[in-house]
Design brief:
By secondary structure, this protein is an alpha/beta fold. Helix content is about 30%, strand content about 25%. It has 13 helices and 15 strands. Strands 1, 2, 3, 4, 9, 13, 14 and 15 form an 8-stranded mixed β-sheet that branches. A 4-stranded antiparallel β-sheet has the order 7-6-5-8, with helices on one face. The longest helix has 16 residues, at about 35-50. It is globular, with a radius of gyration of 21 Å.
Amino acid sequence: MDLALYDSEFGYYARAAQRSGRAGDFFTSVDVGPIFGELLAVQIAEMATLLEPRVPSPEPRFDLVEAAAGNGRLSADILRAIRRRDRALYNRLHLHLVEVSAGARQAQRESLGDVHERLASSSADLPQACEGVLVANELLDAFPTHQVVMREDGLREVYVDVDRSRLATGDSRLMTTEGPPSTPALAEYLARLNVVLEPGWRVEINLRAVEWMRSAVRRLQRGFLILIDYGHPARELYSLTHATGTLTTFSRHTMAGPERPDDQPAWLERPSEQDITTHVDFTSVQQAAEDEGATTIGLLDQTYFLLGLGAAELDGSDLKTRLALKTLLMPGGLGSTLKVLILGKNVGAPPLRGCSFRVRLT
């Protein structure tokens, strides 16, 4: 999964500056239009007010970090909305875009356009230290993951190999094989959650997502984190409901997965030519953040988060706006499948607009 998505030469994300949208393989909230960024700007502006120093400073710094920023479209929407609403905040804002794809990073200045002046850094790694707000929209679900399956004789890990029976014919088709877990951390992960897998259950364990969460909280000196992603609490993710796993592919807006009855899963087909994703274990991500000193402020559906930010108050008189709001809010679509985890560090647990409508998971 790491090679297929992120190899510097052949990786799915490395070979294009943008993979989502009508011409891509899947839709994100950013593809709906600038409304998503404008609503996020409302929450970020409130957080910036809460972070203002008690002792007046001549140049109070405010870092806005976007992880998995792609070509910078979301940050561009956020910055334009902040510039309209609060010019003083816009003028002191330092934007940091974090993106592993060199091609996407090269396209960021053009995407930012008239707000590129606020760009302070563009890198594959998070800033070493920041104070402000870190936003990650659909990042954790794309981290390479381990897949394990419970057998009668214990936990096994799923590995990728070449179907050697076909090599003589020139067919180097990939296949899966099972073996002992590559690290004891996999069994420890499940034990920490008190998860007991039944024989035959297949699940994903995303150690990389937990590591990233710990690193992000450590680097945030003071401020907030807004994580938006597909996922569930551990009690639901590791249950009969998802006993075939959640490893899924997207290609030309067609989803395949998590498992099929034949001998090759969809995620092994056309490597580097389709997106591969898994659902996030929010329980482990949240616990990792709290272990590093963060405080959970809210975990809720995107629908309720955006309604708290005033989505229902937007002018829906034109068809384009109404359709955008419907896409972002409607249950069964982005509104309920995407969850929002809001964390704070060294700020307490203040009431936030994004949590003012209803803090609910469906």
